[in-house]
Amino acid sequence: MAKQQLAVLITLLAFLGPAACQQQGLHICFNGWLKVPPLLSYLLCPPGSRTTNPPPSPSPNPAPPSGAGLSYDYYNNNGSSSYCPSAESLVKDAVKKAIDMDPGVGAGLIRLFFHDCFVRGCDASVLLNTTTSKDSPTDTEREGPPNKNSLRGFEVIDAAKAAIEATCPGTVSCADIVAFAARDASSLLSYGKINMKMPGGRLDGRVSFANETDQLPGPFSSLAQLQSSFREKGLSSDEMVTLSGAHSIGKAHCGFFSDRLPPNPSTMDYAFATELEVKCQGNEANMVHQDYQTAYVLDNKFYQNVRANKVLFDSDDVLKTVREVKQNAEYPEIWERKFEKAMENLGRIVDVKSRREGEIRETCWRVNGAGY
Ligand code: HEM
Ligand SMILES: *[C@@H]1O[C@H](CO)[C@@H](O)[C@H](O)[C@H]1NC(C)=O
Ligand SMILES: *[C@@H]1O[C@H](CO)[C@@H](O)[C@H](O)[C@H]1NC(C)=O
Ligand SMILES: *[C@@H]1O[C@H](CO)[C@@H](O)[C@H](O)[C@H]1NC(C)=O
């Protein structure tokens, strides 16, 4: 997609205003992130990016992510060039400090990890606001529709990186910091119930393109699209459902679910929808908590909300037809163990090709040698 087209799409995403957002007559594109009027859709959404018929039904067991080059306790091997035994505790300190001030930032860190790993593998490409060459500037992933004005937690990663560089310079990748931070945020926001293992050894990429964020499924994606986007990354339908439990924390913009509010017909619980309507005030840029009961606790309430028709997005609502939702709603420990495993698998998505050109970045938001 040409850069200008993307810029227009992003402008559209930057919340068209209520009048333009009647669902009727709007086309959904960019893998479920953008609602655009038909004429613009014809001009801006390439045929492949439009929502059409669902892809063929998913195969049950995709090949899991390879995790090539990763291992546990990666920074603890005395004598190796990657020795930095305080790395993981310095990340934890930075995450704890940030969450103590604002638990919402913990949600941001968990989502940052997901959005990093889904695009070019876990390589911190999501953190770059400048890319390989100053001479050929291009919008990075941070400008893509799923990320712009939405991702948060960057300053926590920067703080952890600064502390680590002061102790063991040039040793710990930003991609590993993102992964460790997501693990620590999960533990803190679940009050110690969710403790995943997280291998280290990722490298930082030198490339980041906004257009590649279309690999992330969006709030208007169908169930088949959610499943196929995860399957492309080696994650199963059950893992997709398991990870969606992260929607028990954090916030969302009204523009991503306003088409489900009155007077539009929708499957949302009517009283719940009415409350949301009051909070949104017809403003697509307003934000609400994703879990109206325990907004800052990473728990299995999401699945109870799905069953009660009290979730925000179409992409949450469509999960209610999946068998595992009932089990996750009824047995928190089963979901907690599955969440630990699925987050680790997410962290094992490594793009072997871009890894070859990988580096340990000095500063997480720019590639080494950028000259600025
Ligand atoms: C299954 C497909 C998914 C879709 C369609 C989706 C979509 C979204 C959307 C639209 C938002 C609101 C963003 C905003 O309004 O600024 C959001 C927030 C969030 N998502 Fe997802 N998401 C998905 C999966 C995941 C996964 C796998 C995780 C992590 C494991 C995750 C974690 C979060 C968190 C923590 C937030 C709140 C972020 C914050 O408060 O800063 N989501 N998601
Ligand atoms: C994404 O954008 C980059 C930089 O503008 C371009 O080189 C690349 O071909 C684009 N990829 C797709 C799939 O359009
Ligand atoms: C690391 O190895 C060096 C030499 O091999 C040794 O002197 C040092 O005590 C070791 N440090 C730890 C913490 O084991
Ligand atoms: C890039 O983002 C960082 C924060 O992550 C910010 O401090 C810096 O000023 C930004 N640089 C540019 C060129 O936008």
From TrEMBL:
The record marks R111 as: Transition state stabilizer. InterPro entries: Haem_peroxidase, Haem_peroxidase_sf, Peroxidase_pln, Peroxidases_AS, Peroxidases_heam-ligand_BS, Secretory_peroxidase. It holds the Pfam family peroxidase. Residues 53-65 have a biased composition (Pro residues). Residues 1-21 form the signal peptide. One of its GO terms (biological process) is response to oxidative stress. Belongs to the peroxidase family. Ascorbate peroxidase subfamily. Residues 69-368 form the Plant heme peroxidase family profile domain. PROSITE patterns: PEROXIDASE_1 (PS00435), PEROXIDASE_2 (PS00436), PEROXIDASE_4 (PS50873). Its cofactor is Ca(2+); heme b. It catalyses: 2 a phenolic donor + H2O2 = 2 a phenolic radical donor + 2 H2O. One of its GO terms (cellular component) is extracellular region. Ca(2+) 1 binds at D116, V119, G121, D123, S125, E141. This is Peroxidase. It is found in: Secreted. It is an enzyme of class 1 (oxidoreductase). Its EC number is 1.11.1.7. Disulfide bonds join C84-C168, C117-C122, C174-C364, C254-C280. Substrate binds at P217.
